[in-house]
Design brief:
The chain is of the alpha+beta class. It contains 4 helices and 8 strands, in the order βαααββββββαβ. It has one domain.
């Protein structure tokens, strides 16, 4: 594999998209449990004997509220928290140099990371998310990469990283 260089700036859009992907990947099991509980409430609600129109309306509005909070609000809240922190990663510029068995990460200091030590990689149409562990990930923007570089990097990551997933 030839060396691939990439410069990624953690723009607000990149970070927002990452938080959405991260949130949905992280909370699959809790979301499944919440959805099962909602289903149980629905079954109970419709098997109950005395029902009135107000009960139906209240139930439907509560259900939509829970679903909306569950799917869209938490990534937005996390972004606003990140925006307010003193050492925020927003607008941080990171340079990557991808090699055969590892990659170099340069921002304030140089750091080398072996592909095999990555926890997992998620690939989307616009970026790679390289998870160092369950709670720390790096964003690699594909915007300035050529198609051949994307193909080479994808093949290398699929081969070397234990868990690779495309979204």
């Amino acid at each position: 594999m030839k060396e691939i260089k990439n410069k990624t700036i953690y723009t607000p859009d990149n970070v927002k998209k990452f938080l959405e992907v991260y949130y949905f990947e992280k909370v699959k099991v809790p979301r499944l449990i919440i959805n099962i509980l909602i289903l149980l409430v629905i079954i109970y609600f419709f098997t109950k004997d005395n029902r009135v129109l107000l009960d139906y309306t209240t139930f439907i509005f509560c259900l939509f509220g829970v679903i909306e909070l569950n799917t869209t609000m938490l990534p937005k809240l996390n972004y606003h928290k990140l925006e307010k922190t003193k050492d925020s990663v927003l607008n941080t510029k990171i340079e990557y140099l991808f090699k055969k068995n590892n990659f170099k990460l340069s921002s304030n200091k140089d750091e080398y990371i072996d592909y095999s030590s990555l926890y997992k990689v998620l690939e989307t149409k616009k970026a790679y998310y390289l998870y160092i562990n369950k709670s720390r990930a790096l964003i690699v923007d594909k915007k300035d990469m050529s198609d051949s570089d994307i193909t080479n990097l994808t093949n290398t990551l699929k081969e070397k990283v234990p868990r690779y997933k495309e979204k």
